[in-house]
Amino acid sequence: MENLANIQVIQNMIYIISSVMFILGIKMLGKEATAVKGNYLSALAMFFAVAITCLSLEIDIKIILAGVLLGGLIGSLIAIKVKMTAIPEMVALFNGFGGLATFLIAWSQFNEPDNSIFQHVLVMLTIYIGGITFSGSLIAYGKLSEKLKLGKGSIVTNVFISFFYLSMPAFIYVVIEPSIAGFVPQVPSYFSIFLVLTLMAGIGFVMPIGGGDMPVVISLLNSLSGIAAAFAGLLLLNNVLIVAGSLVGASGLILTIIMAKAMNRTITNILFVGYASSGQTASSEEQGEVKPITSDDAYLILENASSVLVVPGYGMAVAQAQHVVREMGELLEDNGTEVKYGIHPVAGRMPGHMNVLLAEANVSYDLLAEPEDVNPSMDTIDVAIVIGANDVVNPSATEEEGSPIYGMPIIEVHNAKTVFVLKRSMSSGFAGVQNPLFFRENTRMLFGDAKESIGQIVAEFKD
Amino acid sequence: MEMYVLLGFVLLLSIFLGLELISKVPSTLHTPLMSGANAISGIALVGALMLSSAGQMQDILAFGAILFASINVFGGYLVTNRMLSMFKKK
What we know:
The structure holds two protein chains of two kinds.
Chain A lengths: L1 H28 L5 H19 L7 H21 L5 H24 L6 H28 L10 H26 L9 H17 L7 H23 L2 H24 L4 H7 L21 H9 L3 E6 L1 H6 L2 H13 L3 E5 L10 H8 L7 E2 L1 H4 L8 E5 L8 H4 L18 E6 L19 E5 L2 H13 L1
Parallel strand pairs in A: 1-2, 1-4, 2-3, 4-5, 5-6
Chain B lengths: L1 H20 L8 H11 L3 H6 L6 H29 L6
Helix pairs in contact in B: 2-4
Subcellular location (chain B): Cell inner membrane
GO molecular function, one term (chain B): NADP binding
GO cellular component, one term (chain B): plasma membrane
């Protein structure tokens, strides 16, 4: 007996050490110079915490080995094989698996005899959050990988949304069930119904949210998976689970807030309202004519430009144009042009999406600038090249008070001397708002696939 | 009960600590931070290892929890590392 107590003391001490390592690790992960080491440190912390837990096991070691080896193999394979353009959906998928793990942990705990009232509440809370994280992340995965096309307004979506609202009273019922058991007729197998409803609720939670709002949703699901782990820690009385889970919860929350701010919308508006019902009729008055341009003419203007700002958006990811964009940037620099990249925080489908793509293409990260760095000196830019971005460069956000996106901080490319907009067609952006930028005097539209258009410019430079 | 209050306190403090630690992150690191934090949420693996083994159902649940948490841990750390190794200053 004394032996067992000793083991617990040692375990708790190692847990504290790995908690400190997690804290330092995530701190280092937030700075460019130390990020790689931070990730190693947090992986080491994970290793210590897992290894020391193995000192006292109840489960058959064969089950553990099978689970860890198989899971490690699957996880590693996905991580090594995945293309950088598929990172958003992959993060969503891993996140969902974390949520599923906590969901199963709480389920197992529910099956234990003699749970106290407090444990019962924690079990339900962990199941609810973990389950929503799991199925919500799967839907996010489906949407990001474009396998799932259902959105707001379809009947299926509405059915799942009603499950989401139904799950709330169900949650309250299961929480208070032990206390009212003697007074009201029992609902048979209420727990199984709750499990299913929870998973349905996660689907209904994410399904109506559109692609452009995904950066917020992914950050939020990330946060929820941490919170679920922290609650599981409270349930199992394990301090490292609590500390690590809370850190993830906090970091996800910060990203969620940053993303919402970058869209100038509240989190509730993004999750439960969406753009369509923002009230305003989107169409602004007389638009005028667009001025198309060929890549030959674009090349001639670029050749004489002394400063160029590239503003990428989701369209660059779709066209996989990041490599050819980097090539164009290098050719421009060789030609004596100053090249910068203006990155909007919500460009793309996850926080920092554009940064990852450009890093993959080998663009040095000191060339990447945020909106507040480039906007003040925008009038000195000769050419701003907008590649598949729309809402984040829409001047309505600063000029047109009735616009649904009014107030959203944008990259003010319309103040540059010339703007090239690379676009497939004249369709409006995710927000469904017409973009007056396209009709400006200083704007030239380069229609077609971004990769091809830029490829032609690059070819001209090489000649 | 005392234990829960104490650990609840730890939970609150950790959230505040986390908010302080990561409040100013350059946007270049948003994705790696999210992916790295995602890997940390695989700490659920420790919770999965602590589960008890009483009957087949419990074993299946434990196996599932260990399996999915392991995918989260290994995949999360590896992909974060892969991503970070691409961020270079020339």
